Amino acid sequence: MSRFDITQTNAAVRRLIETTDNRRHKWMLQAYDRHRNLEMAGRWKEIFAPEMTVDHPVYHFNVFGITTVLDGADAVQAVYEEWSRTAQCVFYAGDEKLAVGDNMIVSTATIYQQTPGALLAEAGAPVDPAAYYLVANVEHMIWPYDDEGRLVGEDVWEIDESKRQIIPLEPHEVLTVEQTSALLAPLIRPLPTRPF
């Protein structure tokens, strides 16, 4: 059995949903949970439904020493498509802490992203290009939402480079997008009617 369980990546999100009484906050958390599960399942196109995401989202990443801005749906979708193609859409979260407000969700967690060794080797990491790895780092994320509860973008940054790890995966621990999609399908629920 793998030491990582994709079905538990959003466990902290589900716990917060259960303890949240504010209807707007609960709906946003349900959208957040749906977004992350769709992303990991390779079903990223569904993230851009008009009730979930604004027409022109903007993502800011400051991770692995690289600062990137994805400005607009085409730029964001290109990254999701690439991650699905390379199975980098497989994520795990450890020790996640969340807070929700009227127009944002904030998270701090150790994020583990499945990454092909070939991509890491191209970036200069001393790894086996034929293997897969989890690239782990401690991240803060702010996801802003508009007044209709639609995602405006993501602001993601690595807060402590000294905690970055490259963890080799055994072949049986590597998930394909098809496997992830099947595992997460029971957790991907339609959004309820917006209560605000």
Low-confidence stretches: none
Largest sheet: 7 strands, mixed
Distance between the termini: 43 Å
**Beta-strand percentage?**
25-35%
Order of helices and strands: HHEEHEEHEEEH
Organism: Nocardioides panacisoli
Protein name: Nuclear transport factor 2 family protein
Task: Explain how this protein is built.
This protein is of the alpha+beta class and 196 residues long. 28% of the residues lie in helices and 34% in strands. It contains 5 helices and 7 strands; from the N terminus they run ααββαββαβββα. The chain has helices spanning 11-19, 23-40, 73-85, 117-122, 177-184; strands at residues 53-63, 66-71, 91-101, 104-116, 132-144, 151-158, 165-168. Strands 1, 2, 3, 4, 5, 6 and 7 form a 7-stranded mixed beta sheet that branches. A hairpin with a 2-residue loop joins strand 1 (53-63) and strand 2 (66-71). It is globular and about 50 Å long. The relative contact order is 0.21.
How is this fold's topology laid out?
Blueprint: H1 11-19, H2 23-40, E1 53-63, E2 66-71, H3 73-85, E3 91-101, E4 104-116, H4 117-122, E5 132-144, E6 151-158, E7 165-168, H5 177-184
Parallel strand pairs: 1-6
Antiparallel strand pairs: 1-2, 3-4, 4-5, 5-6, 5-7
Helix pairs in contact: 1-2
Provide a quick synopsis of the model.
With 196 residues, the chain is of the alpha+beta class.
List keywords for this structure.
196 residues, 5 helices, alpha+beta, globular, 28% helix, 34% strand
